[in-house]
């Protein structure tokens, strides 16, 4: 049995042909730390939009990133286990993960960010730059940079749910409100399954919080 609860709170081109055209004219900030058209960026850059995430019906950031070129995802177990991200053969600790431009804290003794802890309902777009960006971001970006952007087009709430075999259930939600000049974003995810092997029951709960 696996139970997983994730909560993330925030204050605040080259890719597969199926979505490369959609992002060719978009603006990106991750490659050179200033806003510029994606088609003018020299570094290999991919942009995943909210529309892409919904079309893929992705349930986790791990699912999203596994679709992108040069990315390998390793998990220490089944559903709910800690994940590590490898870009172009570099070590996972050399992949810099940002939330709205702020580095995501590392998880556990592995000292690498765990993408599985980020609810997909929080994400509006992902900018992924593969290849060394150490001159801009330091040694953590030898493999590349993943910038997860959470800003929503307008305040409000969004909730999604799904069910499957073996008792699988997943619930995902996000809420954003603007108070004075402060933007408050909250997102959470709950996933439950009995697993495929009743002899290997597991239980896991996790909680993540961030203030930007």
From TrEMBL:
Question: What's a Pfam family this protein contains?
Answer: Plug
How does it sit in the bilayer?
Multi-pass membrane protein
The protein's superkingdom reads Bacteria
Q: Which GO terms describe its biological process?
A: cobalamin transport; monoatomic ion transport
Determine if Methyltransferase is one of this entry's keywords.
Answer: no
Q: Which GO terms describe its molecular function?
A: porin activity
Q: How is this protein named in the record?
A: Vitamin B12 transporter btuB
List the top taxonomic levels of the source: Bacteria, Pseudomonadati, Pseudomonadota, Gammaproteobacteria, Enterobacterales
Q: Which gene encodes it?
A: btuB_1
